[in-house]
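FAQ: What does a ligand-bound record look like?

Like this one, built around iron/sulfur cluster:
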Amino acid sequence: MNIKVADTAGFCFGVSRAVDIVEKLLDENIKVCTLGAIIHNPQKVKELELRGVRIVDSPEQVHEDETLVIRSHGVPSSVTDKIKELGISCKDATCPFVLKIHKIVSEHSRKGETILIAGDEDHPEVKGIIGHCFSQHYAFSNSEELEEMLYKLPEVRNSDLCVAVQTTFNRSEWKKSLKILQKLCTNAKIFDTICSATTDRQSEAEVLASTSDLMLVIGGRHSSNTNKLYNICKSKCERTFLIESAEEIPFSELRQNDQVGITAGASTPASIIKEVLVTMTEEIKNIQESEAEPNFEALLEESFKNYNTDGRVTGVVVGVTPTEVRVDVGRKQTGIIPLSELSSDPNAKAEELVNVGDEINLIIMKTNDQEGTILLSKRLYDAQKGWDDIIKAEEEKSIVKGVVTEIVKGGVIALTNGVKVFIPASLATATRGESLEGLLKKEVSFRIIETTRQRKRAVGSIRSVLNDERKQKAEEFWADAEVGKKYTGTVKSLTSYGAFVDIGGIDGMVHISELSWSRIKHPSEVVNVGDTIEVYIKALDKEKGKISLGYKKDEDNPWEILKNKYPVGTDCEVEIVGLTQFGAFARIIPGIDGLIHVSQISNDRVEKPQDVLSVGQKVNVRITAIDFDKKRISLSMKALLNDTPAKETAAEETEEAASEE
Ligand code: SF4
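The answer part, i.e. the structure of the complex:
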């Protein structure tokens, strides 16, 4: 099996620019909202939502402290006018190629020309273009619609026409439309505004699909350009699939020696393309390795050929030793099951599997009349029956239990009812990259995702069961989740903007500003991956499945601590943390600094605080004033020297500070 990824797969210039604009604002701690989803990719949109990005439908919904980002599709001029009128802070990420179309239709419509737009009039880009037309305008989504319109509306056909094209319009459909326009509207001014990124992507996808046995198109199901890519590929390759992420790869459709092609829509992040590629590569490796391994079921078939079997019998256990089990099968010969024929599990012990008096089903492997013995196999009987159960479990998608007996290259082998099931590493744990060692000798639940009848090969997925369990837990969680509710969670991952915490089947994010009352540069200053922490729900959106968590506690709020433990008049030791012309900043407790005004350092005149104090120095001060609203604290060293009552010192200092400032 071979995989080829299209060179043009993934983010185009315009989308990449729009996402960069949003991420840059977030990095600067600016609150961002976007007019509609910034891109048609649910995973990327979710990631941005977790960073606090809000999606709004109109400028009126923008909050005062937010910056609005206009996405690459652009907007009608009435929207930009509204944004200006409301004085909204705004970044325009409209793709320059789309802006060019706005300019064309605006200029030509102001001259009174009729505007024709090749494109889907429900698509935001076309809505935006229409919003820059100031004269009669019409949209058509294919050549047939255009032809019909021109015949039905001769006034359009005979008017001064200007034609522009949606940037992602299908190139071959445009060629057909162009022929009609050139035939019926000889004077039309035609602007081919299809974006070259789109043309190149579509052409490459078409060629790739023509030479592929199976084609994967990665992208959002609501993305117009991804759907167009899918249709182009589907017309050339019957086995074309549109997937949003690696989890949707149609493994059961993969065949040995398939030539697989991969392309992706303009709004598909590189990380998702990479994950699909890595997962596919792993799967191919697994298939190749399992092909190379001796096939247990083939050996089973072989063993039937080697032995002169005499059918199936039921026997009663009459004796158990570490090396064999003796069975009464109702014949004159003694029935013997060697340990190797008792179970497929190489670690099995006879005394743990059967007891005297047990009735068990067996296959007769060999009868030796001279010795008066019959060689029996429970392992073969179980394997045959087990295989029937496996086929049934695959059909019914039911959950199968088994014990992991081996860790092999590329995955683990689980034994269920005497059948060995290969579980690829990518499907053996809840998340990629987890160690497989912990599974050895453990009972696991899995689904059978693939069986090959001819080769009697079974592939299972533990992850499928874990995902279901996770979904179930998520449903239970949402049923009684409410703001303020507390949870004990585990830190799953850290990013520069917060910590993701698993609170029992659901991941929520604690934003960096919610981790500590002090300013921190990275969440790792407070928590680490694997930490168990107490969190509470700060906000939740059940419809979108979005949840924000809080971590820092009110009782740790340094301003509360100050209020309770350091009232005005308190004398304490502080550390100098900064020096300015008008005074020294000193840390009272972590997160709270106060100002020792230059006039409050000494009884003698001090020119500059630097002359007598240095950063890191510890000094004794009196807290002379606290303004909780403005978060300002005045400190005095002089008050201790004079032992002046706090109120007088504060008044004096405030006066002096005011004149300095
Ligand atoms: S497809 Fe072309 S026009 Fe559309 S956003 Fe991307 S670069 Fe811009």
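Follow-up question: can I read anything off the structure? Yes, for example: The longest strand covers residues 359-368.
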